[in-house]
Amino acid sequence: MVLSFDGENIPFVVQKSSDRRISIRFKRNTTLLEIKTPNGKLDGQTREVLNANKSWIVKNYRSQKVIQSKREEFLKRLRAGKLLFRGSERKLLMIQGEKRWVRFEEEEIHISLSLREREASKEGVVFGALKALAKDYLLKRTKELGKWTQSEFGDIRVKNIKSKWGSCSSKRNLNFNWHLIFLPDPLIDYIIIHELMHLRELNHSPRFWEWVEKYYPGYKKAEKAIREYEWLIGIFDD
């Protein structure tokens, strides 16, 4: 089923809501519009809501199309042996070896796999390798920046985070999305410093931004630049 708005044919599904309300949203990282209604049907009242929100629907549909196109191109280039890593496209080399290992050297990513592993999904293999590289780099860089900013923290966790780059808990633990490894080094530093400053202010108050600016002058440019990479979050998780 599709909605035809402003020359766009927008795919949608209708589901029954649990709270007796009408809601609309795009499914994460797709162009599929999810519509929830009290009776699970596309009735007259729901159509009125859709028409009233036509501009929002079209705008977000077009935005999702751009994101989907970028993600498809990313995976296409991966299959061709080219991979975005720390802000630049690198050559990906997969070789046969007795042990599994991954290294970043001379601007190339080298992955050693057994014959059986090489026959597995390339995306899955690269997922594990990149996650290992990301953990090593983010742990090392966080400790370096923590020392430089005189920040004391608990655990550092590098993991899959569905909707953001990082977080800081009230227990002073730092969490980072491993997909940060795709970003340029200055933006990785910005995210790390952002979370380190949450150790001082666990909010986004003016005082928090003063701390951020102390250690990352021009942070507003980084905030703007990093939005251009949000389509990468969870790219291997779908």
Explain what this protein looks like in three dimensions:
The protein is of the alpha/beta class. It is built from seven helices and eleven strands. Strands 1-2-4-3 form a four-stranded mixed β-sheet. A four-stranded mixed β-sheet has the order 5-6-8-7. A three-stranded mixed β-sheet has the order 9-11-10, covered by helices on one side. β5 (82-85) and β6 (88-96) form a beta hairpin. The longest helix has 27 residues, at 122-148. It is globular, with a radius of gyration of 22 Å. The model has no long low-confidence stretch (mean pLDDT 91).
List the helices and strands and how they pair.
Blueprint: E1 2-5, E2 8-16, E3 23-26, E4 33-37, H1 44-52, H2 54-79, E5 82-85, E6 88-96, E7 101-105, E8 108-113, H3 115-118, H4 122-148, E9 156-159, E10 166-168, E11 174-177, H5 185-197, H6 206-215, H7 219-226
Parallel strand pairs: 2-4, 6-8, 9-11
Antiparallel strand pairs: 1-2, 3-4, 5-6, 7-8, 10-11
Helix pairs in contact: 4-5
